[in-house]
Each structure stands twice: as C-alpha cells, then as structure tokens.
Please model this.
Amino acid sequence: MEHNAFTTKRAICYGEVLWDNLPTGRLAGGAPMNVTYHLRKLGIDASLISSVGADAAGKELLSFVSSIGIPTANIQTDEKHATSEVIAEEKANNEMVYTISYPVAWDFITSDKNVKPAAADAFIFGSLSARNEVSKNTLLGLLEESNFNVFDVNLREPHYKRATIEQLLGKADLLKLNENEIVILGQWFTTHGTEKDIVLSLMEQFDIGEILITKGAEGGTYYDHTQMLNYAAEKVKVVDTVGSGDSFLAAFLSRKLMGEELERSLNFASKLAGFVTSQKGACPQYDIDEVWAKS
Model:
C-alpha cells in the first residue's frame, strides 16, 4: 500500500486533544488525536471530534493537528473554556503519570449534525472525554448511531466514575485496556478471578465481542469468544512510552478493518508500538511500508 493512500475504510475518534507538558518539552497529545494520526498513516480515512479554546494554545494546537494530516473540520472552538494543558511526569519503569486540568474545552463538545457515525466502520472513544456531562451526553448520542464501537478505557485518576465506565462498557464492541485497568474492572464487576475469568465475565455482562489487553514490555493478550492470543512486545531502546498504546490500537484496528488475520494484525501492532516507544512523542514520522515489512 502506498504511503498515505486511503482504503475505503473510515473511522471517527472522539475526545481530548491537548498539550502534554513533558519532562522533555511541550508536545501535542491526547489519545484520540494519536489514534487518528496513526489510523490515517495506515490507510484509514479517520477524523477527529474534539474542542480547543479560542486562545493562543488552541490556535497552535489546530495548526499542529493540521500539519500532521488530520482534518480540523470537526474540532470545535470554545469561546468560554481554555485549551487543555497536561503535566506529564515519568515514574518508575518508564510509566508516565498525568495531571490533567479541568474543566477545559473538550469537556464541552457539542452535537454536530454534520458528523455521521453511521457512515464510519469504527467509532473510537475513551473514558476521559466522558468526565463532564456535556461531552458525555454528546458521546452517548453518537454511540446510538455508530456501528462498531471501540472503547479505549484509559482510566486517569481522578477523572472517572464507576457508573460512567459501566455505561460505556455497555456500548463497546471492542474493549482495549491495560494490565492495571483490567484489575480495576475486575474488582468492580467480577469476583476477582484470573485475567481470563475477568475477561469472560465482562464479555458476558456487557455483550462485548473482543477485548485487547496491553501489558507494556510483556506484550499483551487478545480475547474473543472463541480464542485467546498472546503477542510479544518489540525489544527496543525506550525513548518515551507516550502514545505507544494508542499506536498499537490504531495499527491493530487498521489491519482488522482491512480483513487481516488476527495474529498478523497483533504482530504488526506490536511492531508499530515498539517503533513509537523508540521515538520522541506519540506521533513520529514513519514509512508504513517499512513497518509492515518487518511484521
């Protein structure tokens, strides 16, 4: 596939777009933006629904988003609320901890009749964008129209509530979460069994078809109703882990939407996540043919 050549597959990502103030400097971020970027790099016609403030930071952010090839038509400008700023600190084992300001522009995303979730092959959303009632209600409205819903749990203290997570789980067709989040969901909704026990219980309770658990350097595991597949992480020199899970999800989804078989899709996703971990920031430049050739 040629670089940046789109297939007929479409995706919509919903939620936060922001400035990450990292130990190494200021970078644009937000899981929905990162996923949109990688989906577009990988041939999926992806768009982003979000909001920025009518401030200098918002103008800079829109300029950056446009510069990396993401259309800005569905990114709203909020006259009342500031553009989101996040303070990121690196802890043990390269884990990033985030201090996320509230409220900000993306807490007030409103409905737009020009957005057509039913026309997309995948609708990707997280829990962070549901922390405020305005954006949450807009999200729930869009989920009523969408066909295949991908819930990237993305729990960030203290910006989530069990009741909201439970509501969103009921909308998910594919659930993506990390090894810490599966424990939290297990404590909330199951009887504290093994990972597989928790997964099967979540699938049954919330009618979820697929669950993808990322485990950092340990790789991860994919589940559906008939199989469990483990995949290995790439061994790379870590520069930062910001956005590695987002790139994994985007890579996996891109292959899945194109009909690739699961093991090859997981392998490709691991390759891309490893590459992103070896680079600075969540949205580095790369040639998709080179990544695909390694998988």
About this structure: The chain has one domain: 10-17+31-51+113-293. The chain has a mean pLDDT of 92.
